[in-house]
């Protein structure tokens, strides 16, 4: 009887270890899946918690740089015919473009860049959304907005990636980029299918900088141009343009070429 209970105890412990290993594997898998959907500093908020549908994760930030980079020529390129399998080949090329853009996020120098989403052929990203960003209000403006330089380098890298794709696909796509910085509110909407997004006037103006921009150029607001100049970049005035919903705005072009193969230097 003693031997029987010893064997039974051994089997129970063995089964417990197996269940613990399976649980740990599932937790790691859940964490990886969440970090693919949500930023790394947000995912832990949703692990091991029974959040209710009405619970809202949100965080305010004082200085976030928002980028919209689009490939306007893709709309004309897209067509549905028997030759391209009713548009499937066009979507395959778009997927290749977005996937190559995503590859840049794994580089250490772009670790502070957070992809927000894609809207058609438009890529939306932001910097300054790290865990301490909305809490560091005591820093001076120049230091707290130093990540704008990272976003400029990321925009140039996007152009370089697109050039490589053009070379292999025999196309002539060009980027149209808009940048703006300022306060935003970040949050996660949804319970079953959570979506991380950012909101605010900063985001709206960044989108307008892209839609009213020029192919091959990075258009920024006057305030963003002022910060970039303090970081060593050169901007030149485009003049006063009409921006839908914002009236007349003075905008600037960043003095860099999106066809460059490397990041901008401090003398741009």
UniProtKB/TrEMBL annotation:
GO biological process: adenylate cyclase-activating G protein-coupled receptor signaling pathway; adenylate cyclase-inhibiting G protein-coupled receptor signaling pathway; cAMP biosynthetic process; intracellular signal transduction
Endpoints of the signal sequence: none
Major location category of this protein: membrane
EC code(s) of this entry: 4.6.1.1
UniProtKB keywords: ATP-binding, cAMP biosynthesis, Glycoprotein, Lyase, Magnesium, Membrane, Metal-binding, Nucleotide-binding, Repeat, Transmembrane, Transmembrane helix
GO MF annotation terms: adenylate cyclase activity; ATP binding; metal ion binding
Gene3D superfamilies to which the protein is assigned, alphabetical: Nucleotide cyclase (3.30.70.1230)
Domain of life: Eukaryota
Subcellular location(s) per record: Membrane
InterPro entries assigned to the protein according to its UniProt record, in alphabetical order: A/G_cyclase, A/G_cyclase_CS, Nucleotide_cyclase
Cofactor(s) for this UniProt protein: Mn(2+); Mg(2+)
Coiled coil (UniProt feature): none
Catalytic EC class: lyase
KW Heme (keyword) present: no
Pfam families for the chain: Guanylate_cyc
Domain Guanylate cyclase residues, every copy: 65-210
Keyword Membrane assigned: yes
Reactions catalysed: ATP = 3',5'-cyclic AMP + diphosphate
Cellular compartments per GO CC: plasma membrane
Topology within the bilayer: Multi-pass membrane protein
Similarity annotation: Belongs to the adenylyl cyclase class-4/guanylyl cyclase family.
Name recorded for this polypeptide: adenylate cyclase
Species lineage: Eukaryota, Metazoa, Chordata, Craniata, Vertebrata
């Amino acid at each position: 009887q003693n031997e029987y209970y010893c064997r039974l105890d051994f089997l129970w412990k063995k089964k417990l270890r197996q269940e613990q290993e399976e649980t740990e594997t599932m937790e790691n898998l859940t964490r990886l899946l969440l970090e693919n959907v949500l930023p790394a500093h947000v995912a832990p908020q949703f692990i091991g918690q029974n959040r209710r549908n009405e619970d809202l994760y949100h965080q305010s930030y004082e200085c976030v740089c928002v980028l919209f980079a689009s490939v306007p020529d893709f709309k004309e390129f897209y067509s549905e015919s028997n030759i391209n399998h009713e548009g499937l080949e066009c979507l395959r090329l778009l997927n290749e473009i977005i996937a190559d853009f995503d590859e840049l996020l794994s580089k250490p120098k772009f670790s502070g860049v957070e992809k927000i989403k894609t809207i058609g052929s438009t890529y939306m990203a932001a910097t300054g959304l790290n865990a301490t960003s909305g809490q560091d209000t005591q820093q001076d403006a120049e230091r707290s907005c130093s990540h704008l330089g990272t976003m400029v380098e990321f925009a140039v890298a996007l152009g370089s990636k697109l050039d490589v794709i053009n070379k292999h696909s025999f196309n002539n796509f060009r980027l149209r980029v808009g940048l703006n910085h300022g306060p935003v509110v970040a949050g996660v909407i949804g319970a079953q299918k959570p979506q991380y997004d950012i909101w605010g006037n900063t985001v709206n103006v960044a989108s307008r900088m892209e839609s009213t921009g020029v192919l091959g150029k990075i258009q920024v607001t006057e305030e963003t141009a002022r910060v970039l100049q303090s970081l060593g970049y050169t901007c030149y005035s485009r003049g006063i343009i009409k921006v839908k919903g914002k009236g007349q705005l003075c905008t600037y072009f960043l003095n860099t070429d999106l066809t460059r193969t490397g990041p901008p230097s401090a003398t741009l």
